[in-house]
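Model: You mentioned two targets. I'll fold them one after the other.
Researcher: Yes, keep them separate.
Model: Target one:
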Amino acid sequence: MKKRFIVLICVVTAFVALAFTKPADRYFEIAKNLDIFATLFKEVNALYVDEVNPNKLVRVGIDAMLASLDPYTNYIPEDEVEDYRTVNTGQYGGIGAITREFNNRTIVTMIIDGYGAQKGGLQIGDEIVAIDGVQLAKLTREESSQLMKGQVGTPVTLTVKRFGTAKPIDLQFRREKVKVNNVPYSGMVGNDIAYIHLSDFTPDAGREVKNALTELKEKGAKGVILDLRGNPGGLLIEAVNITNLFIPKGKLVVSTKGKIPENNLKYETLNNPLDTDIPVAVLINRGSASASEIVAGTLQDYDRGIVLGEKSYGKGLVQVSRPLSYNSQLKVTTAKYYTPTGRCIQVLDYTHRREDGSVLSIPDSIKRPFKTTHGRTVYDGGGIDPDIVVAGVEAHPLTQVLIEKGFIFDYVTEYVHKNPNLVQPREFALSDADYQNFVSWMKGKDYSYKSYVEYGILQLIEESKKEKYYEGLKAQLDQINNRLADGKKNELMLYKDQIKRLLEEEIIARHHLDRGRIEAAFKYDVDVKKAADVLHDQAQYRKVLNIQ
C-alpha cells in the first residue's frame, strides 16, 4: 500500500506542472491538487496499518515529483542548506580539513593550505575519534560533519589517532572562514606552456584564473592549457569572466531562454581581455559540466582555442534558488543556455546516460549543425565534442576497490612514517622494491571484487538458465571462471602501472598537498602532453581551428 501511496503522491503532485491555457484554470488545479494531497496525507497518517514518519513520507513525495522534471531541480531542507551554500560559494566555517570514511573510521585525507588544520598540527592520515569530547563512533557521517563546522571564531578540539603514536592526541583549533580555491594549481609545463587547473566556478574564479595567467605569462608562457576536467560547473557569471580573458569586450558568451521572459537573457563580455592572441587548449572530459561547457563551447564557437579530451557531461540548464518556508530552499531549473552559435548542449533524455550521469553517444539524426567563426561545423544535442579526441584510461575495478577500502591511503600513511624525507612532485618515482613491499603488505587483506567480465558471465548464466542452455554451457563457463580466478592471483602486478601511479600521487600529496598531487600526475597525463604538443605545433593548431 505504501508504494501505491507514493505513486499516488507523484501522480497527484505532477498535476501542478501542467500548463493550462488560462491562468484561472491553472490556479484552480493547483489549489485542488494541494487540497487532495493534504486530505490524502492526513488519512494515510491516521489509518495506515504501520506507524508513518510524516517528514520522511513527504520528502519521498517531493523528491519523486521533482525527479520527474529533471535531475537538477531539488528540494533542500533546512539541515542541508549550509552544505548547499558551501558548494556554491566555496566557503564555510571550519578548520580547513577534508575527511573521508574508511571502514567506519573518519580519516583526514587532505589539508587545505594556510588554514587552521595545517597551522594547528593536524596531519593527513590522522583518524579523528572525537570532536569536543563527542565520540564519532556514536554519530552518523552527517552529524560528525556538522560538529566539525561551526561559527567563525569558535574553538573546537579534535582527538586523533596518529600512526606511530601510542596514545590519542588532543589538538585545539579556532574555526575560521575557509575559502576553497577555484584554482588549486597553476604552473608551467615545460618552459613556455602555462597550465591552469580550474576545479570550480565559485565566486572569484575569474579573478583567480586571471591572476594565474598573468603570473605565468610573466614567466614566459607562450601558450596556455586550461584544465576543466572533472569541473562540475557553478556560477554562470564566472564562466563569462573567464571567457572574457581570451575574447574581446562586447562579445556574446551565452544566452538563456526560459518560460518566463525575465529568464531570456544574454551575457556578453564586459571587460577588456587579458590576451586575445595566446594559443589556448581547453581540456574536458565527461565530468566537465555546465559552466565548464560554457567556457569550452564559447571558445570553440569563436575558434579561440582548441578543445581536447572526451565529450563533456551535457548539462545545459540554468538553476536558481528560491526560499521556502521553514528555512528550506528550492533549486529549480528556469532556463536552458545556448552558446554563441546557438547550440544547446543539454540532453533532455535523462534515461540514456552513464552511471555517473554523463551523456552517452548521441545519434547523428538528432544533432543539429552550427558554424563557428572560421566555418568549422560543430553540433548540439549532448555535451561539447572535443576538436581532438584523447581517450581517457578507465580505472580498473581493482584500483577502485583499493581506493574505496582505503588500502592505498593506509599503505601510504605507513610508508611516509617510515620514509619522512621530502620528495619532489616531478622527480619522485616509487621503486620496484617499494612496490613489491606494497604487494607483500596487501597479503591477507580482503580486496575482493567482481570484474566487468565476471558480471557479464553472471548475466550470461542467468539468461542461459532462463532459456535452458545452462547445462550445455556449464563446463565452458566453469573453465572461464577458473581462468579468471587464476588471473586474479597476480592482478596486483598485472595492474601495477595504475596502482603505482596512485601510490606516487598519494605519497606526494602528503608533502605538497593537493598542488603536489596535481603536479605529480603530469608525467602520466596524456591529455596534458597532447595539448602541449599541439600548442607547440602552430601549423597543427591553426589547421584544427581553420585559421587561414
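Model: Target two:
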Amino acid sequence: MTANEIRDSFKKFFESKQHAIVPSAPMVIKDDPTLMFTNAGMNQWKDIILGTRDPEPRRRADTQKCLRVSGKHNDLEEVGHDTYHHTMFEMLGNWSFGDYFKEGAIDMAWEYLVDVLKLNPEDLYVTVFEGSPEENIPRDDEAAKYWSKHVPEDHIINGNKHDNFWEMGDTGPCGPCSEIHVDSRTPEQRAASGKSGRELVNQDDPQVIEIWNLVFMQFNRKADGSLEKLSMNVIDTGMGFERLVRMLQGKHSNYDTDIFQPIIKAEEQITGLKYTTFEEGEVSKEQDDINVAMRVCADHLRAVSFSIADGQLPSNAKAGYVIRRILRRAVRYAYTFLGQKESFLYKLVPTLVAEMGEAFPELKAQQQLISKVMKEEEDAFLRTLDKGIGMLNDAMDKMKADGQTELDGVQAFRLFDTYGFPLDLTELICRENGFTVNEEQFNVEMQKQKERARNAAAVENSDWTELAQGEQQFVGYDYTEYDCHILRYRKVTQKKNEFYELVLDNTPFYGEMGGQVGDCGVICNENETIEIIDSKRENNQTVHIVKQLPKDPTAQFMACVDTDKRDASAANHTATHLLDYALRQVLGEHVEQKGSFVSPDTLRFDFSHFQKVTDEEIRQVERMVNQMIRADIPLEEHRDMPFEEAKKIGAIALFGEKYGDKVRVVCFGPSCEFCGGIHAKATGKIGFFKIFSESSVAAGIRRIEAKTGRECEEFLYKTEDILKAVRSFFNNAKDLQGVIQKYVEEHDAMKKDIEVFQAQRVFNLSMELLEKARIINGVTVVTAKTMMMPNVAKDLVFKIRERHPENLLCVIGSIFENKPMLNVMLSDDMVKDHGLNAGQLVREAAKLMQGGGGGQPHYASAGGKNLDGLSAAMDKVIELADL
C-alpha cells in the first residue's frame, strides 16, 4: 500500500464505525496562549475536553498535521540522525467524547491493525499503566483485561508513569494510556540480538517502536497536583502515520518509505550526491553525513512548507522564530554536507506538493508563496553564514597571531546568538584550521540564555475556584452591558506581578482573537467597581483580567464594555474588510489575507502580493474604501450559517484558520468574509480611512498600516501644522513647492562646488604630504594629523597610494566632531613582500585611543573615544610595521 492509500484506509475504517471524519486543524495555533503549534491530535478538541464546547458529534477521526520542536516534546536535534524522529508529522487519531471508552478503543485499534492492515499479531506488544501508589491510582487492570482478548499475557507489559500516564500539561485532563508497539526486526536481527520483542519495548530500539497510543482520559490534574474525576470520559488515540507506513512497506526507516523517498531523490538529482538507505548497511563517515543532511532537509522542508501554508511566516519572534530555526538548520546541513552554497530547499517544494497536495490542498494553493518565502529566507541566512564565517576567520587569524589554539566559548556563543551559527559548524571550521572550541564555556552561556528566557516567560496559575456551574454565553454582538455572575476565577503570577482571571456566565466582552484586541471596561454593582484591564480568548471562552477580586465574588454584577475603545476597534476591523476587498479589486484576485492586527488606535493588514504596491494603486485603494464608507453600507450578519452554505454565497475563508460546521459571516455590500470579530453597525461609522505605510514583511507578503476616524482627523491637524511651520521658514510663500524646489536645486549646485573644492584640497594635500614623507629603509612613510571628515580622510590615503603605488606606508590621523579617526594604507608590495596587514595594525593601535576597527590587508580604519591617544596610535602603527 502507498502512503496515500494507508491514510485513506484509516479514514474509511473509522467512518464505518460511525465516526465523523474531520479535516486537519491548522498546524499553527493562533488563539491558544498555551501553545504555538499543534503538537498532538487532541489540540483542536481541547475546549471539548475541558467542557467549554458542545461535544457533538461524539465520535470523530482525522489525520492531524503536527509539529514538535520545543517545550516538552523537543525532538529537533534528533531529526535526521535516527530512523523515526520528525519535526512535522501526521497523527492519525480517533476520539470519543463520552461515548465508547477503553474496550471500544482497544477493540477498534486491534481490528484496524490486524484485520484491515494485516499486521502479524505475534509482532504486536501492548503496555498498560502499572499504577501509582503515591497517587493512589491502581494498575489499569481494566485495559489489561480487554487486551487479553487479543494478545497473550506475555505481550501485555506494565508501563511506568512516564510512558503510560498521559497529561495535557502541569494541570488539566489526564489519564492512563496503552501503547501498541511493533517488532519489525528481520529474523536475522532477532536471532543476532537473542532478545524477545517484549524485552526491547520502550528501550529505544529503532526497530521495536510504538506506533499507536490509546489515551484514556478520566482525571483532571489540579494545580496542587491532586487528581479529580473528569465529568466525561474521553478517548484520545494517536498513531504516527510515518511509522505506520514504514511497518506496512517493510522498511527499517521512515525515510525509506514513499513519504520521503521522492523528496530525497529530488535532493540527489539537484546535488549530484547519492543517498543510501538503511537496508544498504554500514557506510563511511562522509556518506553518513550526506545521509543525515538529506534526511534533515526532507523533514524540515515539510515543516516549513506546512507552516507557511497555514499562515506562519519565519520571523524573530515566537512561532515565527521556531520556523526560522528549523529552516536555518536545514540550510546549514545543506551548506555543510551537501555543498549547497546557494538556496536549495525551495527547489524541492514542487516535489512535496506533487506528493501531498491532494491530501492537503493548502499546499497546492500556497505553492508560489511557500517557494518565494523559502528562497528569500535561504538567501538571507546564506548571507548571514558568510558574515559569521568572516568573523570566525578574523578570530582564527587573531588566535594564530597570539599563539592560541582554542576559541573561547563566549565568542562561539556570540556567533550562535547573533548569526545563528551553530556550535557544530563552528567546531567543524575550527577543526579544519587546527583549532578547538571551548564547548564548556559555550554551554554555560547557552544555559544563561535559557534561564533568562525561562524567567521572562514563567507563568504560575492557581486552580480555578468554582463559584457556580454552567457555560459562558457571549452576548457581545448585541450588547455592551449585561447582567452577569462570576462562574470561576484563578490567580495568575507572572514576572512577580499578580492578577486574576475571571470567567463570567454572560459576557459582552470580546476576548482577543483573530488579530482584534480584547475589550476592556468594568464589572460593577452598587457596592464596588472592578476594572477589566483586558480580555483574552482561551478554550472557546472569554477570560477577563483584573488586578483585584471583588469583595464578594458571588454577587451579581453589570458587565460594561468601554464603548469608546470598542467602537474605535470595531471601525478599524470593518476597515480591514473593506481594505481586503479593495486590494482584490485593484491588485487582483491573488490577494489573500496573511495576518492582521486591529486595535482602537490603528490597523495592520498583511496580504500576499509579489511586488511593491505603487503610490497610484494605494490612492485607488483609499478612494475605493472611502467611497464605501460614505455609502454607509449597513452590516449584514449571518450567525451559525452552515460552512458549505457560507462558501456558496461567496464568503472568503482564510488558509490557516480553523472553522467549525457552523460559521459567522460578515458582509458589507460586496465585501463578504468568515469572521467572528466585532464590527461597526455600518461603514459610515468608520468616518475616514488613510493608509500610512506599505512595506514588505517577507517574500510575497506586503503589509499596510492605516488609521480611521478620529486618528485620521488628528493626523490631518498635525500635517496642517507641519505645513504651516514649513511655510513660515520660507516667508509664507504661496508656491511652497516651487520655493522648496528652488532651494533643493541651489543646494545641489553648492554641494557639487564643495565636492570639487574638497577634491582639489585632497590632491594638493597629498602632494604636500608626499613631499614631506620620510624614507625608512627604502619605504616611504607618510604621516599627518589633521581636522577633516572621515570620508575626506579616506579619499586622501587612496589619493596618496594612487600617486605613490610602491613601498608605501601611509598613516593619517583625523579629527571630526571631537572624535579621533585612524586611516592606514599600504602599497601591495608591503602586504605581499613585507607580510604587513593594515587591519591587524589598526586593531592594535586603536586600543590607545579607546577604539577599534579593521579592514582589508592594504587599507583599514578605526574610530576611537580618546582624542589624546590619537598621536600615540599613529606612532604605534609605525612601531608595529617594524620597518
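Researcher: Noted. Anything on target two?
Model: The CA atoms of residues 104 and 299 lie 34 Å apart.
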